Amino acid sequence: MGLDRAKVEDVFRKLGEKLVRPTTLCVFGSTPAILLGQPTRQTQDVDVWFTQSVYDSGDLSRACVSAGVLYDPMGELDPAAVYLQIVRPGVVALPNTFETETIGRWGNLTVVMPTPSLLSAAKLVRGSENDVNDIVWWVQHRKIEMQQIEGAIRAMPNPRHRETASENLIFVKLVFSQGGG
After folding, report:
1. Distances 170 to 111, 117, 149, 174 between C-alpha atoms, Å
2. Is 53 exposed, middle or buried (0-12, 13-18, 19+ CB in 10 A)?
3. Is there a single domain that holds both residue 66 and residue 86?
4. What's the pTM?
5. For residue 42, what pLDDT is reported?
6. Of 21, 94, 113, 123, which has fewest CB within 10 angstroms of its CB?
7. Cβ neighbours for 74, distance < 8 A, ≥ 6 positions apart
8. Do residues 123 and 110 both lie within one domain?
9. Are 61 and 124 part of one and the same domain?
10. What's the rounded Cα separation, in Å, for the pair 155 and 143?
11. 143: Cβ contacts below 8 Å, ≥ 6 apart
């Protein structure tokens, strides 16, 4: 179980058909890489960065219900449920503004993502094994330079996150120094 490219595209296609108003969702986490070809992940959520997304909450909520997708759920979830998680600055802190890339358009839905270097910097804050593997995937598939990731880390608003991400960057560098990249 988990999200793969076909499942994510199907969710976005259904949402795009059900949305009444033009909507832009800025996705981050694993979803951008899944859409661009990374293998399936053991996650059922699509993380949406609130401050870079443009949508009507009522319209998006109704579209999610019609498409069989949970909208910003709280509490216990069915492990098979696919859901949009609306993420606001807090535990996660991306820069106030940042460059985005369009991933795709489905009906009234446009999906964008932060640049791969910013996605990588954000993953370094947590620095789990999956996060490091994701960053290695981005570096290999988008030819990101370490300097680009370091620049994205410097743009992060939380000093503690910048420090943690900078420290965790060593794990990515180790993978590449051992021939993993």
Report:
1. 31, 15, 12, 6
2. buried
3. yes
4. 0.91
5. 67
6. 21
7. none
8. no
9. no
10. 20
11. none
Per-residue pLDDT for 84 more than 90?
yes
Give the pLDDT band of residue 13 (cuts 50, 70, 90): very high
Looking at 32-178, which runs of residues are DSSP E strands? 45-49, 70-71, 83-87, 100-106, 109-114
Alpha-carbon span 109 to 14, nearest angstrom:
9
Q: Which domain holds residue 162?
A: 117-177
Do 59 and 130 lie in a common domain? no
Q: Do β-strands 23-28 and 109-114 pair in parallel, antiparallel, or remain unpaired?
A: parallel
Whether residues 99 and 157 fall in one domain: no
The verdict on 34 and 76 lying in the same domain is yes
Residue 98: what residue type? Answer: F
Same domain, 74 and 21: yes
Rounded to an integer, what distance in angstroms lies between the CA atom of residue 40 and that of residue 140?
17
Whether the pLDDT of residue 80 is over 90: the answer is no
pLDDT above 90 coverage of the chain, percent:
69
- What is the distance between the alpha carbons of residues 36 and 3, in angstroms, rounded to a whole number? 13
Q: Which of 61, 85, 114 is the last residue of a domain?
A: 114
Query: Are the C-beta atoms of residues 138 and 113 closer than 8 Å to each other?
Result: no
CB 115 within 8 A of CB 99: yes
Domain boundary among 70, 97, 114: 114
Alpha-carbon distance 30 to 130, whole Å?
Answer: 10
